[in-house]
Amino acid sequence: MTFRSARPSATARSGAVxxxxxxxxxxVRETAEETGLTVDVVKLLGERVHPNTGRLMxxxxxxxxxxxxxxxxxxxxxxxxxGSPDTFSDxxxxxxxxxxxxxxxxxxx
Length: 109
Prior knowledge:
Blueprint: E1 2-5, E2 10-11, H1 23-35, E3 38-49, E4 56-66, E5 77-81, H2 88-91, H3 98-107
Antiparallel strand pairs: 1-2, 1-5, 3-4
């Protein structure tokens, strides 16, 4: 799933980790808050300091358990798009973090 931010950019889902949360807990919470989907964590793919922002990023793979995707937080999202490997670059032209790309290549093809 790819999101078009209400701000000018497109991204895989991201959000802030709250005090005491793990990356995995934040991924589940942020996904529910912003898309209405309930997800289960598959695995933490990795962590890195983002080369452009300097922020510590955690990359989490999740499976959808229930819900219908919709823009639940219009201040954060403008659109939600289900993508496939051949369309990923349309939505994330700068590419994914290496750990995410490796997972997608293995999982999706």
